[in-house]
Specification:
Layout lengths: L4 E7 L6 H9 L7 E7 L6 H9 L3 H4 L2 E5 L6 H11 L4 E4 L5 E2 L3 H12 L3 E9 L4 E4 L7 H9 L10 E4 H5 L11 H12 L3 E12 L11 H21 L5 H12 L8 H9 L16 H12 L2 H21 L1
Parallel strand pairs: 1-2, 1-4, 2-3, 6-9
Antiparallel strand pairs: 4-8, 5-9, 6-7, 6-8
Helix pairs in contact: 1-2, 6-8, 8-9, 9-10
């Protein structure tokens, strides 16, 4: 069967969320031309059992659902790659299994893609908290290199779930991704670079859950920093090999990779800040998404002698302890 859209959903440790995610996908107003590929990345919980129970309630979708089962946990990039390897759709949409989507998302994005002969269709999204949602409006730029700049400076969302992508962009180009952290950034940069036409819809469909304690994005920062650095280097190498020179934005990307080191009171983190991409520090004051207080912290750490930094760290720890005691 010829599919219009292949929906790829990696599944790992989401038993509290998979039912809502699956229902939102199976209840799409786009009734025909959609295939669903769920990749079981060796999940240790009941996610797959619950998923199959939900799927059985949608008999019209059953013949269009495929399951891939990994024998070991391989991580998000491998799960996505497994899904892409069997996808047949003209376009690909990738969702995270702890989120959910509006019922018109696939139909609306596909209609715009077809009407505009677009390779990528972008849209807005919601950041979803336990008691409220925040509408996140994307920049409306559609020039491919402008979109690359905005990705590097974190002014537009890199996640796969904000975009419908023509499958040939994946099939006809080689993508290099290192590890699970920032894999969406390096892939999105490459997708935008290869796209001939990008279209933006100023409407939010996707609900990005911010309260899953098992989500990859809330795990320990230091464990992912090395992979973020490798992906940062990979992005820059890819663009330079293509003859693209945008040094300011390369340095914004470097600052984004190491930014988390500024949130601690750990001297070792500050030492790493000095060691990693020191050439990027001069761009802190124009980096669009870096708050002023972090620019000041980063500037101080970059130039102050260590004895003064030691005193500042000690004072910060004392204040934190007092605040904790008061509470």
């Amino acid at each position: 069967m010829d599919y219009k859209i292949s929906v790829i959903i990696p599944v790992y440790n989401v038993e509290n969320y998979i039912e809502r995610c699956a229902r939102s996908l199976f209840e799409q107003t786009m009734e025909e031309g959609v295939e669903y590929i769920f990749v079981n990345d060796c999940t240790p919980d009941r996610s797959m059992q619950l998923l199959e129970e939900v799927a059985s309630e949608y008999p019209e979708r059953l013949e269009h659902i495929q399951y891939i089962h990994h024998s070991v946990n391989c991580g998000l990039p491998s799960a996505r790659k497994s899904g892409l390897s069997i996808a047949k759709g003209e376009f690909v949409f990738q969702a995270d299994s702890d989120d959910w989507v509006g019922k018109d998302m696939l139909a609306d994005l596909y209609k715009v893609a077809e009407e505009n002969d677009a390779d990528i269709v972008r849209c807005d999204f919601f950041r979803t908290f336990p008691t409220y949602e925040e509408y996140i409006r994307q920049r409306n730029d559609i020039d491919r290199l402008t979109c690359v700049k905005l990705l590097l400076s974190e002014q537009i969302q890199s996640a796969f779930w904000t975009k419908l992508v023509r499958r040939s962009l994946y099939a006809e180009n080689e993508y290099v991704v290192f590890g699970s952290y920032w894999e969406d950034v390096i892939a999105s940069v490459q997708l935008f670079y290869y796209a001939k036409k990008i279209v933006y819809i100023p409407k939010a469909y996707y609900h990005y859950v911010q309260y899953n304690p098992n989500a990859l994005t809330v795990q320990d920062y230091n464990r992912k920093l090395d992979e973020m650095i490798r992906n940062t280097d990979g992005i820059i190498e890819f663009l330079k090999n293509k003859g693209v020179r945008m040094e300011k934005y390369f340095n914004y990307l470097k600052l984004g990779a190491k930014r988390g080191l500024l949130f601690t009171s750990d001297k070792r983190s500050f030492q790493r800040w000095r060691q990693i991409y020191p050439e990027s520090n001069m761009y802190m004051w124009t980096y669009p998404v870096l708050p002023l207080h972090l620019r000041i912290v980063g500037g101080c750490i970059s130039i102050l002698p260590w004895p003064l930094i030691d005193l500042w760290v000690l004072a910060k720890k004392i204040v934190q302890k007092r605040n904790k005691d008061v509470v």
